[in-house]
Design goal:
Radius of gyration: 34 Å
Strand content: 25-35%
Order of helices and strands: HHEEHHEEEEHEEEEEEEEEEEEEE
Shape: elongated
Largest sheet: 8 strands, antiparallel
Number of helices: 5
Distance between the termini: 80 Å
Length: 449
Amino acid sequence: MGCRGGQWLEHEGKRLTEEKILVEPLLTERAEKVRTSSWTQSSFQLDWLTCCHEQLLKETQERAAEEEWENFINCTHLPDVRKESEISTYLALWFVSSLRWSLCYEWVDIAEGVSRIAVWLVEEDHDTDLHRILKETQQAIDVMMGLDILVSQSMAMKNEELTVKYRGYIKKLRKLVEVKTDYATAHMLEHLDKHINTQDNTCKVFNTTPMQKYGIWVNIAKNLRLKTIEYPELGLMTDIPRPIILASVAVRMIHYRLDPLSPFEMGEFFTVGGVLFIEVLDVPDRPKVVKAHVPDVKDPGSWAMIRISDTRGCVERQQYPAVDPITGLINAASPPMTVHYTLPADVLMPQGVTPRLGWWNVEKKEGKGDWDEEGISDVWLETKESGEKVLNFTTLHLTAVAILQSRWSSFPYKSWMLQPMGPNASMLTVEFAGNLSHPPGRVLRRARH
């Protein structure tokens, strides 16, 4: 048995050796084919990606040249946001052009027989026309939108230096928009008589541009029967809390489509539909009219005496609800304000979900500010037969208010599809996890690639 077992093992060993000799060339050939095929495929993919990159770069350059030509033939005075020199010049000129400067000089004797001329500029006044200022701020917002595109592109390229630079320009423009709007508002309040409707003794001014809505109501008569402030042209209505109707104040409401407070914030929430500013402003003393006296002149006219103070040209915001100057506590008895605001048509809200609203609390995040939901209640969204969506809420804090949306509320996507629509154009269809009110369940976006 042992002899037969040994013979079998020897025979089986020979057979396996012969099979290995026959199979090894086949395995080597197969491995070479797989390696060659993988290399060919990888080489093909690399060549294809290189070609796509070169084509994309070419199309980007052609598009930039096309946009530059369009700006040139349109004779626009707005800067090319891709050129740092033009942005810097635009910022400087927009600030200086709104000031009226006087050139003053004086000869100064510095020694016997030696004198020098001292030259200085004196600021006389700002551009104070509210409607013209809002037109200029709209143009500044257009520039910011162009810069925001460059921010997205630089972030996609992971170019931190360009991202910081473009965001810096956006911050400077936002500050100029705020300063100019405040100055024009202050001038209007200082010269209130020009804006009062003598028929009903009211004062209400409003204006609108594509990316901002402005409305201001001044409490002239302190009429307790007046219950609401309405701006049909702005799609905005509020009630008037009793402490406001009894005070010499103005209520200013500005809606910005772009978020001016937290545009670069990468927290849990972001704003939807822009930011609505509701502010209580102090109203300065009205000018006193004194009749002039000129002998032998039948109608000599009159003088308007305006009080000049350190706050001239600046709006003075009043905190609401008021804070006790002694205890530093908020007056809990202050009634809230009810607001009804028609949302922009392109704002998408989930059906059956109560919107989350927040007000800008400057004390949060160590004084940097953040959104706070405390003090806002009775939030509900009304959809009219026309399709308009009216946001209704009650707020105790009269400051910046915005709809807050969780960054992850629509994840995961149910489905998405990228459909070619023509040369260098496509349509992206995304079906979200939540049911959006308009259009139902889907977002369509046309994009160039």
